[in-house]
Known about the structure:
- This protein is an alpha+beta fold and 698 residues long.
- 43% of the residues lie in helices and 25% in strands.
- The strands form 5 sheets. An 8-stranded mixed beta barrel has the order 18-19-21-22-23-24-25-26. Strands 2-1-5-4-3 form a 5-stranded antiparallel beta sheet, sandwiched between helices. It has a 5-stranded antiparallel beta sheet with strand order 7-6-10-9-8, with helices on both faces.
- Strand 1 (35-40) and strand 2 (43-47) form a beta hairpin.
- Helix 13 crosses helix 14 (323-339), helix 17 crosses helix 18 (493-503) and helix 19 (506-526) runs parallel beside helix 21 (548-559).
- The radius of gyration is 52 Å and the shape is elongated.
- It starts with a helix and ends in a 13-residue tail after the last strand.
- Residues 443-697 form the EAL domain.
- Residues 41-92, 147-217 form the PAS domain.
- InterPro entries: Biofilm_reg_signaling, EAL_dom, EAL_sf, GGDEF_dom, Nucleotide_cyclase, PAC, PAS, PAS-assoc_C.
- This is EAL domain-containing protein.
- Residues 302-434 form the GGDEF domain.
Amino acid sequence: xxxxxxNIRNSIISGDNPDFLxxxxxxxxxxxxxxxxxxxxxxxxxxxxxxxxxxxxxKEEILNNPQALAMxxxxxxxAIVMEIIHxxxxxxxxxxxxxxxxxxxxxxxxxxxxxxxxxxINNVAVMAGxxxxxxEEVMVNQLLKENNERxxxxxxxxxxxxxxxxxxxxxxxxNPSCETLTGYTAEELLEMSFTPLLLPEHLPKTMDxxxxxxxxxxxxxxxxxxHKDRTALHLExxxxxxKQDGEIVGAYGIAKNITEKLLYKKQMEDLxxxxxxxxxxxxRLFEDRLQQVVEMAKISDCKPAVLFLDxxxxxxxxxxxxxxxxxxxLILVAQRIVENLRKGDTVARIAGDEFAVLLPTTEPQEAxxxxxxxxxxxxxPFNVSGHSVTISGSIGIAFIDNQHETAFDLxxxxxxxxxxxxxxxxxxxxxxxxxxxxxxxxxxxxxxDLKSAIENNEFELFYQPIVNLKTEQLNGMEALLRWxxxxxxxxxPDNFIPISEESGQIISIGKWVLETACRQxxxxxNAGHPPFKVCVNISxxxxxxxxxxxxxxxxxxxxxxxxxxxxxxxxESILMENxxxxxxxxxxxxxxxxxxxxxxxxTGYTSLSYLxxxxxxxxxxxxxxxxxxxxxxxxxxxxxxxxALAHKLNIGVIAEGIENEGQLGYLRDELCDEGQGYYFSRPxxxxxxxxxxxxxxx
Length: 698
């Protein structure tokens, strides 16, 4: 055996290849399953077939090639290899087993483990060894290392709380974020289970999800826990099973703090679905709830109703108190509405001073009772930062009528009924009927046709005499507008004047009335009749316009009527206007020499004390008080008081609606200055009045 070994060594060193060694060498070395080599002076003197196949180089390219090592070894590892070979040959301590990277002929990289041994053959030191491909092992280890590092990074540096439980719900491991989230240290958490952290009402749900995780299911849910300082936190938790050797040994958990997210979500919902001032549902949420009730009504016996409530005179209150106190007042109104509803009813602020109430199920009598209760509650004084404020409300009620109605339909019907209430005097309620829709259609038609009424000569002025009650001589004429519609016939002023004010058409109509009345009065003067005032009603909307005084000047100039023969009548509501534009306009009109009077005095919300702010020449006592003179002592008392107080303020008094001798006699006894009514003359077109006017004409 020693001779065979020596012969093999000599053959390798000398390059001789005796035939008797070839078969044995080929069997033992050349066909070995591992790469084998012999290095002499840093040059490969032998490699086996496996080495050649592994590297991709032929033996000719490697053997006796001084550059073969540099060609095969990765540049970063070459110095290490050369140092190991040198130290080994010099009998210094050196690794006999080490790993380097090999660069194959195709450029791919392989990780290898080299086992080398120093041998002396024929007095020549050589390095013989094997090369084992450990690429797969290295890659697996590298992947494992990366996974461990990734896990460490995800677990310990994650901003979310990550933890593991054993089968009993006790903490096994926690990351630093768990400490931040709960306020407990890691040591404290590892001594407890999750149950003490939970709000009691969330314990059953959490236990159920934990059991699901132990059965192999992943779940995600929201719960609330107590921080160590006992403040409540809202969490989004994900649980999934923890396995070891294929067995479930616990559960993993990830908890995200969503407290701020939920607060933000609630704020966004409040902005989207709730009124920011009163905190009541807004129109959007109200319509959604109403639609749900409407759909439920189609398959059940519930009978929903909608109440639409509008505050009367809120604009005046808002302007008087200021918008800040006006907002405070609306909050108090909202609270009072809620207090007077049933549990389960919904009240919403629709816009401004408009509120809507949803009664999910009710009967007409019950809904009417609720409306009466709300109206009565509105009349109770409100204490707004020390100010006692009273108000009234107008309500419209609509009930579901058929299977095809929507939330929008019900709200529209309730709004229509409310509008009708307002037109009938407010402070009441109206139940919607189809008749109201006819009135709405009428309103739309009137508004549309008003635009062309002047152009089509459909307007006409009637004039009613104003008589001196002492002498029964003519003191003036009140101009009264009449409209003959081409298809609807004569439309009373009470029906179209409010519509013209809402649509803004009162501006052009009022200008036409004023110019026509001034021109007619001038024509009467030119005809030689004794001059008298023509009285023209003007709207508050006209008076608010900054160009109104200039418009009056232009009309007087155009018609050549002197200012002292024009009297402008305004309704009592003008006294409630607290705008400088109105006050300034009244002052300028007075300077022009135009008289000013208040129509329908005594029916509004003011008293004669307001007249001190304005230099009015006359007040007109409303016809309702004159009608009561013969039957109602209160009517007499009010009439007498108005006359006496007006005279104290040097203001003339006109009584409207005089129809008989009894009324006339009482007014004369009370020293009322002037009067008008059917007793003297009905309103008539200008051409039907007979001059000269005097007692013999009445």
